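Support reply, case 0932

Customer input (verbatim):
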Amino acid sequence: MSALSTVRMYPLPEYEPPRLPYPPDPDEPDYLLLEFPPPPPAPVTWLLGDGPVWDEPGQTRDRLRRLLCLILEVLDGRRSIGQLRGVVGAHLYESLLTRSRHTTGSQHRLRSLHTCRPVSGVIELCATVTVSTPGLRRDAVIAIAARMVHHAGAWRCTVLRPLHARRMA
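Our regenerated output:
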């Protein structure tokens, strides 16, 4: 019997009911045989407190909100890109530099902010932003996804993705 001849299936503790202890069917081909009895499920570490933390409290949230507002001011053309050099990653800085050369006079206003800390020292966030453009009657609403990394005592934005709605023809 080769290493590929046994398929191991583990139940997902929160999503699947426990498997009943039926013996394997003797007519099944070798590659579909299941181990009997099933091995015990692996421990679920996020139930033990090692999982993500949702919505940062207090001062950290305020700093993240301020950092995101600074980036939005650069996109508006109201703030110089040079002021962000120490708080954004190199790739993001170059991207913002390119975008800031082609500002359209629009104004970005942060409406909502949601955070998640998947591991210590990293915060991922999503935000809703209203974009007002001169000459247009309606404001656009976009989503922004970002990743912040805590480095040398400060938060630094390493990834920023504005998610624009697809335009209908």
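We compared this against your earlier run and they match. Two observations from our side: DSSP finds two helices and five strands in the chain. Residues 27 and 110 are 62 Å apart (CA to CA). Please reopen the case if you see a mismatch on your end.
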